[in-house]
Amino acid sequence: MSIKNTFSFFLPDLEHKNGQAFVSDGIKAGFPSPAADFDETTVSLDNVLVKNRETTFYAKANGNSMIGAGIDNGDIMVIDRSLEPMNNKIAVCCIDGEFTVKRIKIEKDCVFLVPENKEFQPIKVTEENELIIWGIVTYVIKSV
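Predicted structure:
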């Protein structure tokens, strides 16, 4: 089986743990408080986003089928391959040799890969399909 790779997968860089400045008390999104003191420490996003170092990958989303789930074209997904696929989880799947990201919907006798965009149709997984649940999406990193 040849696999059409529409994603580029990356490993977390766990060697550089210096981190970036982090305001742990949060920053007000409403009216600013001039008296607020900032307790600035550092944070490494790899340490926050990666729970299982050996099984976590990053991949860039390619397409718009998951915009309703907050995954836009170009977003970076954090994918953990050690998590159990469950109903309603968002997963990177390989179906018939092509990677896709969809929500898993498990019904009594059937599994669907469901997009979060009405312009796309759910994929009904049948016995004729070869489906590999590659990993579960745990976080999405996006630009604003």
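Summary: The CA atoms of residues 30 and 93 lie 40 Å apart.
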